[in-house]
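Anyone have tokens for Epimerase? Sequence:
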Amino acid sequence: MSAPGGNWGFRTGVNDFWGEDHGRKTIGKTILVTGGTGFIGGAALRALADSEPGTNIRVLSRQPLPESLRTGEVLHVHGDLTDPSSLRGVCEGVSTVLHLASHVGRDPELCDVVNRHGTTALLADARRHGVSRVAYMSTTAVYGHGVHRGLTETGVNPLPVSPASRSRLFAEQAVRGFGGIVLRPHLVYGVGDVWFIPTLLRLLNRVPSWIQDGAARVSVVCVDMLGEVLSGLTRIPWRGGETYHVSHPRSTSFRSIVRTVCSTLRLDLPSRSLPVAEHREISRGMMPELTDHQHELLASDHWYDSSRIWRKVRQCPGPGFSSRFARAADWYRDLLPIG
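Reply: yep, here.
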């Protein structure tokens, strides 16, 4: 949830970086990453390091970088999204900002401080230093309640229901107004995931039943593929003010997800199926921390048209959940037993 500051003695303007034909790199680039020590940010840093050796990467965070991130191409910049004064100067010399830090808890004040005011302060520094390329990682949670089937980025007006998603929608609006772009993944899995699959595992442990036979279809994306998309965006021009869904283009059923998870982790499959309402009533008692909205995400269709982003970055999304999940099996296995 944090981000950083510093003062640098050089500058790379966006026009110099792209050159006149907007496709040819003319000088080295510097990328500022907020949230680089987190789940998605870490994947972005790995992808950047793999695809663009020699790129200058600044990671904005309150704490020193973990040993795994301390390389010659990664520079720690101290700062905090809760302290706007610490963000002054962090964008000097930067060609692209990947703003991947958010507070996703339930404290409204902290959500506003980090997501609203922190983003505003970061954009102000980007403006001061002539940085126009800012990409913000948001979430499909900004759409709020409802069944979503093949939803496009303009298919429905966002109606967020939580402090986190409301403040992230504000950050979206600020970024688009600035001329940046917004990315909205749905459910993200992979090494480092502490919400999607762990929540599903806890639910299966406490309420070992299918929800409506596991028929709900959802959009998912592997965090490593999300990192590749972010890395790809740093290498191409973009038009500001746009929003992109970022999930695998093929939706998958929760029945398929649960079967893959249980098979890989050698867990028993649910032995019965419950209607959505009955399952929710039982889960309220067995897992009170699960919100109505979170249960809805596991019980009803939530899949999104993500075709535009793959065309944009000219990448192949590769295999889906059933093939990729095994790569994170050790991570999830270490989280067992789920209490």
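Confidence is low (pLDDT under 50) at residues 1-27.
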